[in-house]
Amino acid sequence: MTAPAAPAKAGLEGVVATSSAICHLDGAHGVLAYCGHDIHDLAEHATFEEVCHLLWHRRLPTRAELGDLQSQLASARPLSEPLRRLIRSLPPGNTMDALRTLTSALAHFDPQAGDASPAARYRQAVRLTAQLGSVVAACGRVAAGRSPIEPDPALGHAANFLLMLGGERPSAVATRAFDVALILHADHELNASTFAARVTAATLSDVHSAVVAGIGALKGPLHGGANAAVMKLLTDIGEDADDERVERVIRDMLARKVKVPGFGHRVYRTEDPRATHLRRMSRELGERAGRTRLHEMSRRIEAVMKEATQIDANVDFYSASTYALLGIPVDLFTPIFAVSRVAGWTAHVLEQYANNRLIRPRAEYVGPEHPQPFTPLDERGR
Question: Which of 179, 187, 312, 316 is the catalytic position?
Answer without folding.
Answer: 316
